[in-house]
Amino acid sequence: MADEIVVGVDGSAAALDAVRWAAGEAALRKLPLRLVYAADVTGGRFDGGLPVPQTFFDELERAGQQLLAEAARAAGEATVTTEMPLEPAVSLLLDQSRTARMIVLGSSGRGGFTGMLAGSTAVSVSAHAHCPVAVVRGRPGATGPVVAGIDGSPTSEQALAVAFDEAAWREVPLVAVHAWSDADYGVPLPVPDLDWSTIEREQQRLLSERLAGWRERYPDVRVERVVVRDRPRDELLARSARAQLVVVGSRGRGGFRGLVLGSTSQALIHHAECPVLVVRPEQG
């Protein structure tokens, strides 16, 4: 691990918010920041096969360095390095994720990172990165607890580990949310006559088991347990209004086999009211 936090910048206000948030995250851990700008010129040619003149690259270099200098100023007193390779944004960030502690992106962008809110960059990087990916949106400087979504899947176990670590560094409580009904039917369906109180007690027991080892490892982190009969994305989106960070796995128990980014994590990336940290399974 390079033990640095990598931030994608493009000159947008959202990217500068991401830099400021990442600088605070780096300050907690005394880590450096790497600011990267993807100056992508596919093939070095205009449409029709005409070569790009050198003056174009000179202007691109000048403009890119200005963007990076502005981002470095936004980082304040953080230790910063900058990089501007001629490479597509997604492939650049995925390559950086192999050694970074965290990748940080703004919630929307332009230029090299166009389309984040629509999902072309944030979703792609969150789905395939080799380290956690933070999408800074909503209220970047928000206070409140760290919220973790838990569903018992291996990915959510790793997200829980990251969430405890974040709460410990920030010295704030951790809200562990287990929303155990992810039904989303387009039309009303008959509900079986079930003993919901018994089911809820069982879900409470399962959540306690998931938290047991981590509470021993992080005894100073105060944990609030939340078990609700609700769709995970609805409960987590609601709680994002009062949190400073929501941590989720890239996908959980639901969805189709092979789906690399689940509906809950995608909903949070697009609509959460605070920054979202997406954790993928560890690589083999």
From TrEMBL:
Residues 1-137, 145-280 form the UspA domain. SUPFAM superfamilies: Adenine nucleotide alpha hydrolases-like. Gene3D superfamilies: HUPs. Keywords: ATP-binding, Nucleotide-binding. Pfam families: Usp. The keyword ATP-binding applies. GO terms for molecular function: ATP binding. InterPro entries: Rossmann-like_a/b/a_fold, Universal_stress_UspA, UspA. The keyword Membrane does not apply. Belongs to the universal stress protein A family. This is Nucleotide-binding universal stress UspA family protein. It comes from Amycolatopsis endophytica. The lineage of its organism: Bacteria, Bacillati, Actinomycetota, Actinomycetes, Pseudonocardiales.
